Amino acid sequence: xxxxxxxxxxxxxxxxxxxxxxxxxxxxxxxxxxxxxxxxxxxxxxxxxxxxxxxxxxxxxxxxxxxxxxxxxxxxxxxxxxxxxxxxxxxxxxxxxxxxxxxxxxxxxxxxxxx
Length: 115
What we know:
Elements: H1 3-9, E1 13-16, E2 26-29, H2 33-39, E3 44-48, H3 54-62, E4 66-69, H4 77-86, E5 89-92, H5 97-106
Parallel strand pairs: 2-3, 3-4, 4-5
Antiparallel strand pairs: 1-5
Helix pairs in contact: 3-4
């Protein structure tokens, strides 16, 4: 699925549109930046509750095209601005991270066997 399709299917509040046509490969959930740096792969979605500028730095470094903020978390303005600058999609969901990941799995995104 593409970023645009995912955002529409999950009715996300899009803060930064990124590249809506970009295909997503998998998803990772976590709030510990070092974990995301070690485990995330290019073209994955990152689900987090972190809302500070370092989220954009990690997403850019790991080439994560979509960051979804769970639990209705509002990004700090510098995070939103940096995501727009880096063409990283940033969206907000009212769902908790667990429920958000369940919905992503129902859309066919994510495979625990993929590394």
